Automatic annotation (TrEMBL):
<dbReference type="InterPro" id="IPR001731">
    <property type="entry name" value="ALAD"/>
</dbReference>
<dbReference type="GO" id="GO:0008270">
    <property type="term" value="F:zinc ion binding"/>
</dbReference>
<protein>
    <recommendedName>
        <fullName>Delta-aminolevulinic acid dehydratase</fullName>
        <ecNumber>4.2.1.24</ecNumber>
    </recommendedName>
</protein>
<dbReference type="Pfam" id="PF00490">
    <property type="entry name" value="ALAD"/>
</dbReference>
<keyword id="KW-0627">Porphyrin biosynthesis</keyword>
<dbReference type="GO" id="GO:0004655">
    <property type="term" value="F:porphobilinogen synthase activity"/>
</dbReference>
<keyword id="KW-0350">Heme biosynthesis</keyword>
<dbReference type="GO" id="GO:0005829">
    <property type="term" value="C:cytosol"/>
</dbReference>
<dbReference type="InterPro" id="IPR013785">
    <property type="entry name" value="Aldolase_TIM"/>
</dbReference>
<comment type="pathway">
    <text>Porphyrin-containing compound metabolism; protoporphyrin-IX biosynthesis; coproporphyrinogen-III from 5-aminolevulinate: step 1/4.</text>
</comment>
<comment type="similarity">
    <text>Belongs to the ALAD family.</text>
</comment>
<dbReference type="GO" id="GO:0006782">
    <property type="term" value="P:protoporphyrinogen IX biosynthetic process"/>
</dbReference>
<keyword id="KW-0456">Lyase</keyword>
Amino acid sequence: MPLDSTNIRQTMTDLIQRPRRLRKSPALRAMFEETTLSLNDLVLPIFVEEEIDDYKAVEAMPGVMRIPEKHLAREIERIANAGIRSVMTFGISTIPMKPAAMPGGKMDWWRGCRASASRLCQK
């Protein structure tokens, strides 16, 4: 009898013993596991803010702090010592971006908060 959506449940409930052959030993479980996470797979988001002197909480995310730009180097060192190799910086600037004196009046993003934080993280 071919399986279709009407009789698949009946077939699974008629089993005398549930199929657990892939869960019997640690070696088989490791071979067929779907997801493995390590510290190398994680990316830590960092919120860097200009012109603040102390850490501020991000209200929408409990336990997450906005880091003053002047403390970023110390935080990056602490994160690296914890074994986390990747960070993503989010720059929060209170200074409005104005077109710099560049050809065509384009924005000079290289001087912004996020760009300076990224340069510091790469060191």
